[in-house]
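Subject: sequence -> structure tokens, single chain

Hey, anyone have a minute? Need the predicted structure for the following. Not urgent.
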Amino acid sequence: MMKVIGVRFRTAGKIYFFDPLMLEIKKGDHVIVETARGIEYGTVMAGIMEVPEEKVVQPLKPVIRIANQRDVEQEAANRSKEKEAFRICLEKIRDHGLEMKLIDAEYTFDNNKVLFYFTADGRIDFRELVKDLASVFKTRIELRQIGVRDETKIVGGIGICGRPLCCHSYLADFVPVSIKMAKEQNLSLNPAKISGVCGRLMCCLKNEEETYEELNRRLPGIGDSVTTEEGQKGTVQSVNVLRQLVKVVIDAGDEKEIKEYPVEKLHFRRRHSKKEKMELSKEELQELERLDEEEWQRQEQELMNRAEEAQRQNAKNRQGNRRQTAQQGGEGQKPFVQRTEIERRPGQRSEGGQRQRGGQQRQGGRRQEAEQRQIQRPETKQQTDERSGNRRRHDTPRHQNRNRQNSQNQGNRENSQNGKNRYDNRNRREGRSPEGQRGAGDGQA
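Reply:
Had a minute. Here:
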């Protein structure tokens, strides 16, 4: 354990720990301490106390002294000088034409540095601005870009509730706020109603989150099934979180009634929060798991019983349909199976030839069915691709010219063969020698 004091430097700023040494310091005193920015003037928000070493950021710097009257006067002079520095910086920003919004100017206690806080949409090249400010103030200059939430924290204002902003009055750190918190508290999801002056979700949504989580854990969800003390079952229509009242729709004969019950008079399965689950012991968690497993088995057994009952009912219906069909067959013509047996009996008592012809007929019928199935079977993708590929291959200009040339050559051959046949027939009618002899005789002549 270490002895420390808590010091704050700005309104609603973060509290830092310092070593009080042997000084008698109490809450509300002003002290002079050394920080990373230099010598600072701060206010003690927490007196001397002991804290674990894990919570202290090392190295722990000591308090220089308790502020005297001269230190108080110097701090007041610095506050007045900050207004003049703010005005000069605004003029320099306009002269350089920079798209930045100046928020605040701050002097360190020893006047070793001047800090300017600003906001901007993107990155700003303020190197020339820093040179001009350094030539005016003759000290170190630091320009720090901040966000819209930090801007609101520094400037302050009045919220939609009519009170000073939480971040400017007492909130030291910004806490994460999500839209889930607004849903948990049944607030309107209109951004204009749940957003603060900075344009972000209101920080006060975090204040009542744990309370609403605990209240909602005791209530059933809308649409859940509940049972009243009288044993009536109904469905939850709406809930009142703060009053812990539930409106339930109950079937009263052929009509439905809406009744409002306190949550203590309803039976339902409660929800468990994350915090409650973490606080349960190992034996309690095992008991909860066992109860959940039993509930699951019971529901599964009910489903199996319903399925068996449905199967038995379907079997009874099919049996009744068979009996009705058999009765209709007895009154009118015979059943289909009996006709088939009657038709087969003469063929079985006939000779082998008849049976063979019957077998051939059956074989022919099977072949015909197979051919029909083969005809009806759609062609495969490979066959379709081959057929389309052949068609595409023969549709090219090269193959078209080749096909045209082949057809012309074939026509020439047919014409020459027809002319030769006519010439030979004429020679035979005139009694001339064949073509080979004629060629030889003509050659000798």
